[in-house]
């Protein structure tokens, strides 16, 4: 990732000792302004719906941040707050109800779930319609990401990538070490950074079982710390000695100081590692605001995908087959093509037909067909 629209801090007129800060507040503001312009240009009415279960304190803070940013950007924000004793069936119904609501473009189930529902987390996340899965948790969307043709991007990894791009931090051929292998940050960020036709970084993922982890971090040009452990990186000796390391701190911890004051700190002790850093994300004000902004970016993308030609084709399917779970038989093909023809350019229509021709007896699951028609951002409207 060469170039970018940022500049070293000394070229921005910022004089300071130690590393330059990757200002997430500033860059997130740019992202939100771009979204406002896109909403107006495409005449969209994006709508994000968040489902929360229980009274998790951290979740309340995150949801409030999403709501404030959404309202500021022109995105409708609604929330369904369910009690801690909510059953799996009740949560399922709440999700499916918003899946069916054509006025909602993004659906989020806020994590963590209460203890009683936690064992069902994967099942719950899989219930969200992939077309509205702006968190990119659904296997279909994560699979697109893994194959290098993402439909949606996970918010925190997308925010990190945008920060690297904005400040012109080189990634091609660089060694990026990620501490933490979560499905929310570590794994998807590793996939994004390692795409050979894009950032093309050499990525190493580490967890609590990694042997010689600090020997590995000493090789890192870019170190991403997403382990969820307060001040895990606390010693400059675990960093490369050239003083050019970029550190991305994803952690967020509310800590009480000896004076009794509550402060927010990260997985990295910034003061301790400053001597060997070139770039560093502050906590707060680094990755956090970027996560919110890039989540809203996915909501706007979803609204765009579910509007215009895409919405027309989807409606044609619904009218022709009754439900998204239906199967298309060969006898319905002619009518289907008649509906598709006005909404898809000839080359896209021809590409969409190829899997049909190869399928047995012209039968294919509708969701698979839709993924072929709308693969990535290049198809439809």
UniProtKB/TrEMBL annotation:
Pathway given in the UniProt record: One-carbon metabolism; tetrahydrofolate interconversion
GO terms assigned for molecular function: methenyltetrahydrofolate cyclohydrolase activity; methylenetetrahydrofolate dehydrogenase (NADP+) activity
All copies of domain Tetrahydrofolate dehydrogenase/cyclohydrolase catalytic, residue ranges: 22-135
Listed GO biological process terms: tetrahydrofolate interconversion
Keywords on record: Hydrolase, Multifunctional enzyme, NADP, One-carbon metabolism, Oxidoreductase
Tetrahydrofolate dehydrogenase/cyclohydrolase NAD(P)-binding domain residues: 154-305
GO CC aspect terms: cytosol
Domain of life: Eukaryota
Subunit structure as annotated in this protein's UniProt entry: Homodimer.
The protein, known as: Methenyltetrahydrofolate cyclohydrolase
Organism per entry: Alexandrium catenella
